[in-house]
Amino acid sequence: MLIDSADLDAKSAYKLLIGSVIPRPIAWVSTVSTEGVANLAPISFFTVVGRKPPRVSLSMQPRSDGVTMKDSFVNIRDTREFVSNMATLPQVEGLHRSAFDFEPDVDEFEAVALQKEPSDTVRPPRVKGAPIALECTVDRIFSAPDGLHHVVWGNVVRFYIRDDLLVAGGRIDFGAIAPVGRLAAEYTLVDNTFVPPLDTEVMRARAGHRIVRLDGKDTDYSPIDTPAWSPSGATTTPG
Fold first, then answer.
1. Which of 70, 211, 213, 60 is closest to 141 using CA atoms?
2. Helix count (H) and strand count (E) of the chain?
3. Which of 38-47, 109-118, 230-239 bottoms out in mean pLDDT, i.e. has the lowest?
4. Phi, psi for residue 90 in degrees, rounded to 5
5. N or C terminus: fewer CB in 10 A for the chain?
6. What is the pLDDT, as a whole number, of residue 152?
């Protein structure tokens, strides 16, 4: 099937994008408002855009009402700082709950029962227990003509790497992390790795194989079909 993007509204295009660009890493972004209120939110339109200086990118949409800027973006714009914490399985419940559109005066660490860890160079705290965190300062912000969609480039000024994860040669032992990524409106656990070529029998065994659901739901289940989903990346219920 061929679909002309010009025929799609924003919600329909978003559904196709988040189901096509998979898996996506999650930047679990902590910020602080100018009033000192801590904010925490998962952002899966996230990637690396530079090495020297090390630089990451966040693409940010409005809240679920379609017009109000998310607290994360307002805080980043106003304070020029943020921390990208790595999302992993042990903290996935807090990660998911932090996607709710809390009011700006709510400390989201407290709302989702997570502890803060002081950062080394920026005001926003790290998530205590996150194995990796990138302390960032804003390099630049690109804004779409509609004034509602923004891309933030952040320079990584400090890497926090849990001691046991940094191994010889300066690489990270990602096999010990249990990282969580984003599919469409669902999550995926990274629990295998390989380097091609693979054995023919392995390839044959995987042919037509569906992703295994860890939550026991039906194979055709999707949160997109529920009232809790919104085309903002946020959830409309706090649980």
1. 60
2. 5, 12
3. 230-239
4. -60, -20
5. N
6. 98
